[in-house]
């Protein structure tokens, strides 16, 4: 049986994250991890903040804060949003606070250097004479050499998406003081991606190396990577910065140099696992997750991180060979990258105020409703968006009317007519057509989650609820109970027993998707609720019969409806920002 090592892209500790980030890399990973745990699989889900890099030093300096003070603030705020979304990390850390991270990063560097996959080069880079320092790419702004956009950064053009060599930037200025920099010679280290491509990356990606299999790539991932592999270049992995992982001091010219953030950040997955193992009292256990052929490594990311997780980090892992304790690292089994998630027709923009205020949102709406809607509108194959109208429809018409209403109708009727005890059933309805449909759809939820088809998973749950509501309506137990016919009385009991059994199944099937609501439904089922496991029910094996006479809990509202005035007010809040 494989063990599952799951990661989400390390969020930068340089500002708040928003619902778009959650939809892209964290909520899907959480659902996947929760599902695997429920099925009895061995799972480790690690993440943490990315706490180095030019973006962080630049903003900290602009705000007059120390680097550690700055990242600590955002580390805590980011984790707060994840907690509200009930993201179930097994370990949460950060690249500047993890005690193993610096040494692990330098060890990666030394091994790759010793094995000939890192080389140094002296070349011209921009230098500020007014600040007396070399300027990393994010400290530069100028004209993109590819498309002519005049506000391109020194590393990437936000207009055309091109990677930029900073020295090729036209008409550059320093973003700190607006001065014009000059080119001066400096030494940096590069990772030889073309060499690594020839010596293993290409074969692994194309599945030509059967010893390192992976799952099927999503089309958006494959298209991006195929284009990148046709024109792969060596990439710099060091920067002139006062904050970061220092380049090994034994190397000539290393003074003032730190590892580039995109080199040390993915190593954060490894070091976080090391930290987790040490805190568990088994410091060597990290190797069982990273260097064991039974591990399936899955990275959940947004499309802007595809290059780093499908090309760069696998190249780094391949380049280590078996030089780390005579063992090889496992390469990604899958990288189900998502596209971008927008807000009400525009990109999320925390600087401009175009985002959902976390404090306000969670004071008004449930995390389960937010999780469900994000999953229902996930940008799996193309960009999608959060709209307040869509959120209201998902909450009211789907969660409240279909799932919540079914639970309420069944439990309240049973409480009134059978004293909140499970009725006795003769099994005569087990093969009912509507129940067979419910079997099929509820059984498909796990299949879709395992295939990273989260939108289909929530659709399958709703389809199952549709079938169960049809079953309840078709048999009309409120009429059967009034009949003096013993056959009808027995049929009424059978209807209620089946509905309760399927509610118990739903409480488990919805657990990865809406965990708090699933817990509440379990409480409503009282003693009839089984252990929170996925179970073995399939389309051909309906839920097991509940024991007659088992006590149920008290019915409650699973999902509260949201009125039109509330939604109109939320839309007005956003429109006021634009105005």
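-> sequence recovered:
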């Amino acid at each position: 049986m494989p063990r599952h090592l799951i990661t989400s892209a390390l969020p930068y500790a340089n500002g708040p994250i928003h619902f778009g980030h959650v939809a892209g890399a964290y909520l899907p990973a959480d659902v996947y991890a929760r599902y695997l745990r429920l099925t009895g699989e061995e799972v480790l889900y690690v993440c943490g903040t990315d706490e180095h890099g030019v973006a962080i030093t630049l903003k900290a300096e602009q705000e007059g804060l120390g680097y550690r003070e700055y990242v600590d603030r955002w580390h805590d705020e980011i984790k707060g949003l994840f907690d509200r979304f009930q993201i179930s990390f097994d370990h949460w850390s950060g690249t500047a606070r993890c005690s193993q991270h610096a040494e692990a990063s330098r060890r990666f560097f030394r091994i790759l250097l010793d094995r000939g996959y890192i080389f140094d080069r002296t070349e011209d880079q921009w230098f500020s004479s007014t600040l007396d320092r070399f300027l990393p790419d994010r400290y530069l702004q100028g004209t993109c050499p590819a498309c002519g956009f005049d506000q391109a950064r020194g590393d990437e053009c936000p207009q055309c998406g091109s990677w930029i060599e900073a020295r090729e930037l036209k008409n550059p200025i320093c973003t700190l003081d607006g001065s014009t920099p000059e080119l001066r010679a400096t030494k940096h280290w590069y990772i030889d991606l073309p060499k690594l491509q020839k010596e293993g990356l290409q074969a692994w990606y194309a599945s030509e190396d059967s010893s390192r299999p992976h799952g099927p790539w999503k089309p958006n991932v494959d298209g991006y990577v195929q284009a990148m592999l046709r024109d792969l270049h060596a990439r710099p992995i060091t920067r002139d910065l006062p904050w970061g992982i220092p380049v090994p001091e034994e190397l000539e010219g290393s003074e003032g140099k730190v590892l580039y953030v995109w080199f040390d950040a993915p190593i954060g997955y490894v070091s976080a696992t090391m930290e987790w193992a040490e805190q568990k009292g088994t410091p060597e256990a990290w190797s069982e997750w990273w260097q064991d052929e039974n591990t399936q490594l899955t990275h959940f990311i947004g499309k802007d991180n595809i290059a780093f997780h499908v090309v760069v980090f696998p190249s780094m892992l391949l380049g280590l060979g078996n030089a780390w304790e005579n063992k090889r690292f496992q390469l990604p089994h899958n990288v189900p990258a998502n596209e971008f998630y927008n807000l009400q027709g525009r990109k999320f923009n925390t600087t401009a105020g175009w985002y959902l205020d976390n404090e306000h949102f969670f004071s008004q709406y449930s995390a389960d409703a937010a999780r469900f809607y994000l999953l229902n509108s996930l940008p799996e194959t193309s960009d999608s968006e959060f709209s307040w109208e869509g959120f209201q429809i998902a909450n009211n018409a789907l969660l409240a009317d279909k799932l919540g209403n079914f639970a309420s109708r069944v439990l309240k009727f049973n409480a009134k007519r059978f004293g909140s005890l499970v009725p006795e059933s003769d099994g005569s309805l087990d093969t009912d057509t509507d129940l067979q449909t419910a079997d099929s759809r509820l059984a498909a939820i796990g299949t879709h989650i395992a295939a990273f088809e989260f939108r289909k998973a929530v659709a399958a749950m709703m389809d199952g609820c549709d079938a169960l509501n049809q079953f309840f309506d078709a048999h009309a137990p409120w009429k059967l109970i009034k009949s003096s016919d013993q056959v009808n009385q027995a049929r009424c009991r059978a209807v209620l027993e089946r509905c309760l059994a399927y509610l118990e199944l739903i409480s488990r099937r919805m657990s990865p998707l809406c965990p708090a609501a699933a817990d509440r439904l379990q409480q409503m089922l009282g003693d009839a609720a089984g252990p929170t496991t996925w179970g073995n029910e399939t389309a051909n094996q309906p839920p097991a019969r509940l024991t007659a006479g088992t006590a149920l809990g008290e019915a409650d509202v699973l999902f509260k409806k949201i009125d039109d005035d509330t939604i109109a007010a939320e839309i007005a809040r956003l429109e006021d920002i634009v105005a």
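The chain has 18 helices and 16 strands.
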